[in-house]
Amino acid sequence: MILAHKTIRTRNYGFTLIEAIASTALLAFIISSTWVVIDRCVASTSNSIIKMQAFEVARENLETILVRESIKEKAEFGTSERYPGIEWETIIETFYEPINSQMWLRAICTAFYYDTNGEQKSVELEHWLTGLNKNQLLQILMRQEDGMEDLSSQLIETIEDAAEYAGVSAETIEEWLDKGMKMTEDDFFTTTNLDLFKLNDGNPSEEDIENLQISSSEDLSRIKMQQNKTNMKDEIDPKTGLTYGQMEQMDIQEIWDVLKQSREGE
């Protein structure tokens, strides 16, 4: 009996060139898509971080204004010390709210930054600080006209320089300090306080010690306003063309209308 054996041969097939190219292309597409998603996530995270930093700068500037005992119209700008890539601007201004016919003083704190695409963005915080009556509005206008001497021009650092300014000895300055002469928070002498004690032979009244000394810019502004209030009634306000005495006879709506016409004409 003859047995026939059938040999079965198997053939292992590999990837063809076309299949390999297609697989490589598909893999490259998947990797590139994943990379784009990752890149966008990184950019979005970076933008969120720097936006939060800008918000922090604007918030700190606003909080600085809110804790002050007194404020005035001004505009300031600078670069953040903590985040050098962020610039800031702070504006305190008056505006008229027509619904309730009320003058307000508001603060606008803005922080500027650049996103990952190089575009400038900003974060702005606005806070209505306080309503203004007519007298307060007139005081603001007077302050702008007067120019308000800066406190830095009055500062004297050492007791020796203070003694030389007042024409007395350093021991006398120490006696004046014991009697209540004020210094600034940074321990500077001021010419106003030195003059007060010098002109009163080192013995000003308790009322003058309390009311006529300065230790901050706010104190200086307050005293200047008290000194100039009676003298400026006949002075002409450059923004309105009216005297301060005339404006005292007007209501706040009339004053605002004149100010608005003046601004529109500029």
Short characterization:
The protein is of the alpha+beta class and 266 residues long.
Structural key phrases:
2 domains, 266 residues, four-stranded antiparallel β-sheet, alpha+beta, single chain, two-stranded antiparallel ribbon, Pantoate--beta-alanine Ligase, Chain: A,domain 2
Describe this structure in words.
The chain is an alpha+beta fold and 266 residues long. It folds into two domains: 26-132, 2-Layer Sandwich (Pantoate--beta-alanine Ligase, Chain: A,domain 2); 151-265, no CATH class. The chain has nine helices and six strands, in the order H-E-E-E-E-H-E-H-H-E-H-H-H-H-H. It has helices at 17-66, 134-146, 159-166, 170-178, 191-199, 206-211, 217-229, 244-248, 252-265; strands at 74-79, 87-97, 102-114, 120-132, 155-156, 189-190. Strands 1-2-3-4 form a four-stranded antiparallel β-sheet. Strands 5-6 form a two-stranded antiparallel sheet. The protein starts with 16 loop residues before the first helix and ends with a helix.
Number of helices: 9
Rg, alpha carbons? 35 Å
Per DSSP E runs of 2 or more residues, the count of β-strands stands at: 6
Helix content: 40-55%
Mean pLDDT: 76
Beta-strand residue percentage: 15-25%
Structural class label:
alpha+beta
Label the overall shape.
elongated
Domain tally = 2
The ordered string of helix (H) and strand (E) elements is HEEEEHEHHEHHHHH
Major β-sheet, in short?
Answer: 4 strands, antiparallel
Low-confidence stretches: none
